[in-house]
Design goal:
The chain has 14 helices and 16 strands. By secondary structure, it is of the alpha/beta class. The radius of gyration is 24 Å and the shape is elongated.
């Protein structure tokens, strides 16, 4: 039976899980794929480091031996970061090797270059595990919905922020308490900036948008807000009003132009994404013939990510055995999209003004909203101590974001309104 040699670079949480998967299911994979899979080399930073589990194969330092080995057909990159994996993947592709990666940050930053290089060298660059952990959403977009026109993608693409918001909602924790708990549980990094500021989700939705709309979306152009401004008071009021806070990444076509964004939104409790808890991810896709479909699963963790890496490996081996031409991603052949301006979009909004507790405040706020063509749906004011600042909660009908920004700026600049005020968008569909 034919044997295919694999070079694995990275033996952390995901690398180790992938190694264990291949070893545990070697017989089943052999029967399903018709080849014997063998991880012939594992590249690590320090081969002499003490490890709980040592791979039963050759342990090498770095990746040079792996990318130069003529006997290795497939390189699996599970290192993380950008600079070293970029060099690794470029060298592997240049040496005619297929590559599988889970590195969404690298693909969002340099994917256009890497996909082009893979196409030129006649090899494949697979990346299912880069978005959604174990959810096969990339395969759904590229294969399952190939006959559909996709016009809307929305989802929870970051398990860390979803865990934090779940704990804030269900246990009444404040943001710092929930973040600390997420770190202790292993769901958040010691430096969680990429997650809590929405950057991780922006990188992921940029890849999905590019695949769905057949163009290149630069994640740096994606409108992005994180969850650090959400307070216990915001959570409490949202709950009382029948909403749940979620960090939602979305990409939809508006007037033929992609509108791509990441921001914390209030979802009605009956919304399919509202019930997605803890570290789970979910993606909703709307297409012309299938309509709405939803995909749910663990968005991070060694086993979930290893499952997607193994899926890529199986697809790749089947194509190798059939001697099929490399399956082009398509992203490398298109120009970059210019995205739909965020200020031209329309939403319903929830505004939270922190104000002095005195007469005339309501008149100021409602007057400035009206002068900016914004219609109020409901108003609620709450204070525990009349001598302390008051919380004024307002929900408004659908309005243009530029109008909301203008009204909000004028209100916060008014006498008796504090800069700690804020607003959030409401997503009903």
């Amino acid at each position: 039976m034919e044997r295919i040699n694999i070079g694995l670079v990275g033996f952390g949480t995901v690398g180790r899980s992938f190694y264990e998967l291949v070893k545990k299911h070697s017989e089943r994979l052999r029967k399903q794929l018709g080849v014997e899979l063998y991880i012939s080399k594992v590249g690590v930073g320090n081969p002499g480091k003490k490890r709980d589990l040592l791979p039963d194969t050759e342990l090498v330092e770095g990746y040079e031996d792996i990318v130069r080995d003529p006997g290795i057909e497939i390189v699996v990159e599970l290192v993380g970061g950008i600079d070293k994996p970029l060099d690794l993947i470029k060298k592997a592709i240049s040496n005619g090797k297929h590559v599988i990666t889970a590195n969404k940050a690298l693909l969002a930053d340099r994917g256009e270059e890497l996909f082009r290089l893979a196409r030129e060298r006649g090899v494949e660059l697979k990346f299912e595990a880069s978005v959604g952990g174990g959810i096969p959403v990339i395969k759904v977009i590229r294969e399952s919905l190939k006959g559909n026109e996709i016009y809307n993608i929305s989802g929870i693409l970051n398990g860390t922020t979803n865990y934090i918001l779940t704990r804030m909602t269900e246990e009444g924790l404040d943001f710092k308490e929930a973040l600390r708990e997420a770190q202790e549980a292993g769901f958040a990094e010691s430096d969680p900036t990429l997650d809590i500021e929405g950057i991780d989700a922006a990188q992921k939705i940029s890849l999905l948008a590019g695949l769905a709309f057949r163009g290149w979306v630069d994640y740096r152009d994606v409108y992005c807000e994180g969850i650090t401004g959400i307070t216990k008071k915001d959570i409490e009021f949202a709950t009382l009003s029948g909403f749940v806070f979620k960090l939602v990444a979305s990409a939809k076509m508006l007037d033929g132009v992609p509108a791509v964004s990441v921001f914390p939104a209030l979802l009605p409790k009956g919304h399919p994404l509202a019930s997605v808890r803890n570290e789970y991810n979910a993606v909703m896709i709307e297409s012309d013939f299938l309509g709405k479909s939803m995909y749910l699963g663990r968005g991070a963790g060694g086993k979930a990510t290893a499952s997607s890496v193994a899926s890529d490996l199986g697809d790749l081996i089947e194509r190798i055995r059939m001697k099929a031409k490399p399956d082009p991603v398509g992203l490398e052949g298109f120009t970059r999209f210019k995205l739909f301006p965020q200020e031209d979009r329309e939403f319903k909004y929830y505004l939270h003004f922190v104000t002095e507790n005195r007469p005339g405040i309501w008149a100021t706020v409602t007057g400035l909203l009206a002068s900016n063509n914004i219609n109020i749906e409901s108003v609620h004011q709450k204070w525990e101590d009349p001598s302390e600042p008051s919380d004024l909660y307002i929900m408004v009908d659908k309005a243009r974001e530029s109008n909301i920004n203008k009204a909000y700026g004028e209100i916060v600049a008014s006498d008796g309104i504090y800069e700690s005020s804020k607003f959030f968008r409401i997503l009903e569909d």
